[in-house]
Amino acid sequence: MIASLLRSALLRVASEYLSNVDINKLSLWSGHIALENVKLNALAITKSLNLPYIRMISGEINSIELSIPWTSLSSRSVQLKLCQVFIEISLSENTVVNNPIQPVSESEETLLSKIIGNLDLEIQDLTVLIRGREEALYIGQLNLDKLKLYTTNENWEEEFLNPFVQVPGGAGYRVWRKIEFTDMNFRIVSGSPDDTVSEIILMHKFEKIKCWGCPLCHGFKSSSLYSLCTVRCQSFVLQSYIASEHSISHYKSHNAQLIKDLSTQQLKFLLAPLQVKLNLVNDTMFMRDFYGILSKATPPPVQTENKDESYSWWSWGRDFLLSPFYCSDAINHHSHTEKLTVDSFLVSIQSPSLHIRSKIHNPIDLEITRFNLTTGEFKSEARTNYSESSEGTIPKQCEKVTEGTVMCPLLSCHLKNDYVVFRTSDANFSMVNDKVDYLARELIVHAFLSGNKASSDACRSSKLCGSIVFGNDLLMNINTDPLSLGFSLEEMMIIIQIILEAKSFYERISKP
Length: 512
Known about the structure:
Structural class: alpha+beta
Distance between the termini: 57 Å
Number of strands: 22
InterPro entries: BLTP3A/B
Organism: Blepharisma stoltei
Helix content: 10-25%
Strand content: over 45%
Strand order of the largest sheet: 8-9-11-14-15-18-19-17-16-13-12-10
Protein name: Chorein N-terminal domain-containing protein
Order of helices and strands: HEHEEHEEEEHHEEEHHEEEEEEEEEEEEH
Largest sheet: 12 strands, mixed, barrel
Oligomer: single chain
Radius of gyration: 27 Å
Number of helices: 8
């Protein structure tokens, strides 16, 4: 039964999403399928994703290898390997419709969810080209040498697991996944929407980032295009844990029942040294475009489905947490029913070092300020907890907390020929809603005027703490213990000017 369901699903995927594959010639029962020069059906994939602001333009895969252990599907993983994948995406308005889906049985949904939950996926040489047009033109390209995804146990060791578990009064679904990325490069180029620079020049800049001497580079310089953002990471690992529970508790003495829906999502990024470069030529316009894209990308309200409708096996991707537990409600003989919903989401990032270079253009006084941040080990964790009850017996709560630690951070701020260096031994921060509490130890500040040496006695403090409130205005509270100042008047003015430039930048991006 499992084999026939999987075969039917694979044939459905091949016929709908692979435009140049004849499914009548696929020999699935051999257990090994190899395809070459496969073209993706961009229109079908766009309709299936059904996202309001993402449209697939084209897609090609040089080779596909699929290994299926037909005799042991309930204990061994299906393996899928893709080589030389190219995908082009457009960030343009896309009509979202509630297309009818082909109904399948609950058992088919459960079996396919188990197989897909243990899928081993490997992608070699992935390229994703993204195009967007708002007030400005944005073209981004992601290059990834290798991606490997597999299912693990709770100790993050590779293992085939049954994602379905029994919980008191109901069922649960738990999946641990590990994704390994190798040699990632991401770059965004921006410019005027009316610029007609050739595609050859544009692709050359993505492929030859460090080349600045050839005629193609001269054509890039002569256009309005510029590099907005560059991100490089040699390797990183993403650990993902997704769990959901649905249970019903009956209370005969009170003639009542309690329905619990619990959802947990945890993402942990383990990064190699990360390098980020920003060039904000027009930060105000960029933030307007960014917020505009976010507002358009918000999906419209989804119509409530009738309870007698069946789920499709396609629904596991869009409704990953809820689809495995769908079942029709029993006749309710209770006089009181309450539903408790609890959602928790956690994202953590860890890197041995971090290097961020940014160039900020002030459009008012035409000043360019450069900020370079280098750190040692960096750790950050963001948590969101949400809970509510249908009858209001438990107060509705939504808590958002972000915490982090940075070792040996060094920030240099350059303004014309002058620059200031801030250095601490370590720094901790905690953010709740719009308020950030911080603590830095062994702070030292040096100011350099026109390349001259800094004063021997700089600003020193064994501990610097306080808070920053982000709102209509930037409110700062600073406490030091103790504080030693040894600046000249000129050095103090440079420090004040850099702080004012940072405040002006915050005001531009917070009120675009």
